[in-house]
Specification:
CATH architecture: 2-Layer Sandwich
Structural class: alpha/beta
Number of helices: 10
Radius of gyration: 18 Å
CATH topology: BirA Bifunctional Protein, domain 2
């Protein structure tokens, strides 16, 4: 099925925000799109401090050194999307909220991951990086992961959010995220680190990485336009979305019962 072209989407270029706020806003946008109160939306944002998000179905204690996180002030937030544990730090994150009636979502989840991943490939090419989509949900550069994503489908709407690692501290990441083989942690960490790469490690050593955020956000929007012919209308969150986000942040993403144990139903 061909993807429809010349659609108009909303573009939100956000600031660096706390983890609970970021997840609440993504959820609010998805609900607004589902309710017909917002156009399909691409949101670009960052994180104001290192944060770990875990997938909807994960057991936090199996994935994260929770005591270290508490000691060091690393927030652990449960996403409404599936997928694995992610350490967010010095990155650009994107989220896409679109109706399931969109041609982009047609077919399998794997196919939609690929469709949404290709604009990220285009964006990275703007920086001279040869990127490729790798199933199920990764983007690699020279065979190493630079971007991953996670997805959920509910209320007749798809939400996918993903990362682009800019200057993420890989060593710090594995202070807080558990590896599968604790007995051979050193070797496993070295192997995992060898499969991950950041934009700043690939580009000129004198690059001012702190100036990259706006350029990457613009490149991602261009990538969606290139792939799908989308026209973007840059806007802010609506009052409806802001109210939703406040509610979601309080009842879910700032609530330990949700984040640690999923004892609160998703709303």
């Amino acid at each position: 099925m061909a993807v429809a072209r010349s659609e108009t989407w909303r573009l939100i270029i956000d600031t660096q925000l706390p983890g609970a706020r970021n997840m609440a806003i993504d959820h609010a946008i998805m609900k607004a799109v589902a309710d017909g109160k917002a156009l399909p939306t691409l949101r670009l944002y960052g994180w104001d401090s290192p944060t770990i998000t875990v997938g909807y179905f994960q057991n936090v204690e199996d994935e994260v050194y929770i005591d270290k996180c508490r000691k060091d002030g690393i927030d652990v937030i449960r996403r409404i999307t599936g997928g694995g544990t992610v350490y967010h730090d010095n990155e650009v994150t994107y989220s896409v909220s679109i109706p399931l009636a969109s041609a982009i979502t047609y077919g399998t989840i794997l196919e939609s991951y690929q469709r949404i991943g290709i604009p990220i490939v285009h964006a990275l090419s703007d920086f001279g990086l040869h990127a490729e989509y790798q199933p199920i949900n990764d983007i690699t550069v020279y065979g190493k992961k630079i971007s991953g994503s996670a997805q959920t489908r509910k209320m007749g709407t798809l939400l996918q959010h993903g990362t682009i690692m800019v200057e993420t501290n890989i060593d710090e990441m594995f202070r807080y995220i558990r590896v599968a083989d604790e007995k051979n942690a050193g070797r496993e960490l070295a192997a995992v680190k060898d499969r991950v790469v950041t934009m700043c490690s690939l580009m000129a050593p004198n690059l001012r990485c702190d100036h990259l955020y706006q350029h990457i956000a613009a490149a991602v929007a261009r990538g969606f336009t290139k792939e799908f012919g989308i026209t973007f209308r840059e806007e802010s969150l609506t009052e409806y979305e802001l109210e939703l986000a406040e509610n979601y942040q309080e009842k879910m993403f700032s609530n330990p019962d949700w984040n640690l144990h999923r004892k609160v139903d998703a709303i």
